[in-house]
Amino acid sequence: MENKRVVITGMGIISPVGNDIPTFWNNLINGYCGIDYINDFPTENLPVRIAGKIKDFHPEDYDMDKPFVRKQDLFTQYGMAAAWQAVKQSGLVSEGEGKNIDPFRFGVYVGSGIGGFEVQYRETAKMIDDPSGQWISPLFIPTMISNIAAGHIAIKHHAEGPCLDIVTACATSSHCLGEAFRAIRHGYADAIIAGGCENATIPLGIAGFANAKALSRAEDPKYASLPFNLNRKGFVMGDGSGILVLEEYEHAVARGATILGEMVGYGNTCDAYHPTAPRPDGSTQAKSISLALEEAGFDEKKDNLYINAHGTGTHLNDVAETTAYKVALGDFAYKAHISSIKSMTGHMFGAAGAAEAIATVLALKEGIIPPTINLDCPDPECDLDYTPNVALKSDITLGISDSLGFGGHNACVAFRRYE
Length: 419
Known about the structure:
By secondary structure, this protein is α/β, with parallel strands linked by helices. It folds into two domains: 256 residues, Peroxisomal Thiolase, Chain A, domain 1 (3-Layer(aba) Sandwich), CATH 3.40.47.10; 153 residues, Thiolase/Chalcone synthase (Peroxisomal Thiolase, Chain A, domain 1, 3-Layer(aba) Sandwich). Helices cover 33% and strands 18% of the residues. The strands form three sheets. Strands 5-4-6-7-1-8-14-13-9-10 form a ten-stranded mixed sheet, sandwiched between helices. β13 and β14 form a beta hairpin. α7 packs across α13. The two termini are 25 Å apart. The mean pLDDT is 97.
């Protein structure tokens, strides 16, 4: 079977640093930190009071009506908003006037690491107060399940082809992109709306991650998410959604679509080591990177490589990830440009990989590497070029984004600048 080319024709974002692509990108390259004090629920009794929350989000701006919004968890609303942006930019229409894609060849691969966490929290509290369950919402199940965002996106855009919700914790949306890439590459779809969405910053989420010793307890929100910094003390929670429209190249060209970049590789491995800690020797993480680079046709002599790191700001992750780059790339690891946008967005969990893939595509397109902000005290164990503090102009030719999730899930996606 001949492998088909896969290009990006649309992108959408809801993030702590912007709710549209231009704002998101402008804030990233200018080192704007979207992490702040939480102000939408009481935090005085919680161990952590900061997060990368979504600001100025108005669902009606993304063609959602009030009855729909009233019934849906925010994770679905974020996913719907980012998908609306991405599909609108792509110009794909699957029914009626202007139809340019067969709906049975139009898919949705959108996942969430946790799903309707806020709905689950609220309805569980009702059940504890009244064990009869009579006050539990009849919409509880279909708003809580993690696949419902993908379902609603498919309904909205009349996408009747393959529809999957991949759940691999923090690697969720990278796996969604990778599996969508394969589906198109091998001929099972012409276009797929792919990515992830998350709204996990609720009291229960904070308590759970904090008690697992994973969260930074920094008091200053602007100096809290510190990837590769010796002063790092854990990750900072973030919410939002990242969505890309992946499309078969010939299909995109035939309809005159604007092509934003090309997806060229994907690697998928498992640490098979520990439920939460990464494999220390970096071997399995490195394998996912190597697989993506091999499929992308990486050439050390010709390629200027950018790596959008998982870079959570936990001690174990950042050291293991640095080791993985060295295992995968050898001495070339010291020549690669690397950065972690989590220093500005916080960790968007199931949406992180897609948001970071968008940043990678934009870095290739614009020739600018977003910085790792607040990298004022580099960890000697993290001794690669992590683009400290200030964006860098560079004529990069290949970009990869890797994601590591609880359960040992590793994903790496690769992109090239479209010529």
